[in-house]
Task: structure prediction
Amino acid sequence: MAATPETKVKRRVQALLRHYADKGVAMKLTWNAGAAYGSATVDCTGVVSGIPVAIEVKRVDGKGKLTARQKADLTEFRNAGAVAMVIDSEEAIVRLTEFLESRLQFPLTAVYYDWSNF
Result:
């Protein structure tokens, strides 16, 4: 079975993220399945070099549209201080690349917090 246009873009984004992880950008990302939540949600959530991120991937031909739930989720992430992005064009892939490239300049040192005192 041939990959859908959106799946092709997701694979490109995943490869880009792997490339930067291999270059030393610290990241912990989870790829979500909308069906698990009962309705569509953002594709990828996690942390990149200490910055929370939420990524929704759409096809780059302009035919992919955000659901109301995805818009609300991205707005919630943005309002909470996360970088929330929609990858729906070649320009958006360039912006993601620039974001990841900028994180190379700020290596993250692991920190352990003992929450038992709170």
